[in-house]
Amino acid sequence: MKEINIIYLEDNPDDIFFVKRRLKEAGVNFQLKEIPSGKEFVDELQNIHLFDVVLSDFNLPEFTGEEALWAVRNVSDMPFIFLTGALGEEKAVSLMRKGATDFLLKDHMDAVAKVILRALREYEIKRKEEARERELREKTLTLNTLMESMMDHVSLKDVNSRYLAVNTSYGAFMNADPDELIGKKDHEVVNDPELVKRYEESDRYVLRYQKHIMEEIDMTFDGRRIILETLKTPLINDKGETQGIVCVSRDITAKKEAEEVIYKNELLLDQSETFNQSGSFYLDTASMQMTCSKNFRRILGLDEQSSSEIPFVAFLDKIPVSERDLIEDSLTMAFKFHKELSLEHRLADQYGNVLNLRTQLKADTTTGTNRYVGMVMDVTSDKQVNNAVLQAQENERMKVAEDLHNSLGQKLVALKMYINAFQSKLDDKEMVGKAQTLIADSLDEVRDISRNLSLKIIEHNGLKSCLRHLRDLYQQEFKSELVMDFDDNDVSLENAGHIYRIVEEAMSNTAKYAESNCFKLSVIKEQHYLDIDISDDGVGFDVNALPMGNGLKNIQGRVRKSNGVFFFSSEPGKGTSLKIRIPVREQMETSARVPSGPIT
Description:
This protein is of the alpha+beta class. It contains 19 helices and 23 strands.
């Protein structure tokens, strides 16, 4: 038995002796402190927490038991028992109302142990009940605070599905005072029978199986669509018994409608991308991760159902080595200056087929400078058509060149021979000389036209020789500086034709509009591409004030057809500069490599 610490206010040693004796006889483990006077008792109250029970005589010199009770009750609610010789019934009731726990007449001292133990037992029960009530009040306060602080609709039901508590948000949703809902069932507050049936079924499931349930309800309430996401959880006590249901509902109408809009937009995007043979992506340059559409993954030969996020290097590695550096450099420039980018390049799909893609990139200005929105379009068919058109044009040029050479050219040669033969028989030698000069110039011009119309001259003489010839054609217009460091075998015949036409267009524009004294052309082979710089010192123009002319559009179109990139700049009084990069001739390959980190 736990030791009981007793403080006893008594001035009679015999009474103290009898109490100790009776407690020992009852087998009580105790410590008893004797206090003979009221003054000592009051002084000892500072240590009252060290005791379990107070025993007190009622009649003491200069200090009454009632005063002792009052003094104790000011500092503690511990058991207080009167041991007295005589005490009227009315006084006993009065003392009990003022806080006395019990009283025992000294004639019945044999029962003192029983009275003390009963008082301690009842006091312990009282303390536990008070602790439970305090805990319940705290939990109730916490629950009410939580319920009222939540924007969600929160309710508590008993095992009969009657509302025990609802928060203000739920009351507002139901257009009712929360107190009016207490004690009611769903069919008393909801007008939709189907909805009530669904509520009741889910309540029964939670109560029967003691499992939570999440349900989504799409309903019409007060003439408007509402979608609720509701979590119902069983309320289980310490004994494992179900006491009720906690319901938390959240209005997800706006979220679901937004998701529906996104889904519809995704369907439209998918249909549009499928129709246009394109795919879209979102690039974060900080992590170099791409979030891709299904069609983008299809174009790259990835599983359309796989993760929509892929590393950017997975895209680069499918581009042939001869074009990869070119694209990385172009991306670096675009990222650095936050410029839009559009370029054409090749890509190998999962079957080894070579696709021609147009990739476009634009900064997402809504989220900062590290994110870009992009699109790739499969232009393989378009390129085949364009190439066929170009080939038809080249064939037509070749036919015209051949006709000029074989018909008009041959006739001019014959005419020159006849004049030379008649020269000795004609009197006006000067007129004959002029005719000969005119015919010679016409013949040279026909040959130049024939040469320029046909790309066979490139095939026969090489790109470098043809570029020198172009330079010589314009030597009367401006001074030309030509730097070339590449081999003709580095360039495919198709790209060589594009380069020749690009330079021809640039020189023609310079002669027509630039008022330039100097034209500079540099064609240098880097590792995987030709670096072409074209510039003049002419009048220039404001690129922001004037639209791109046909000449520049033609150049840009041929650069794209060559899978190259094109930059140009111009300022009034500072001339015009073109920077072009075109891949060199190389076998289609997509060798993997270790990612080198973000392109910055």
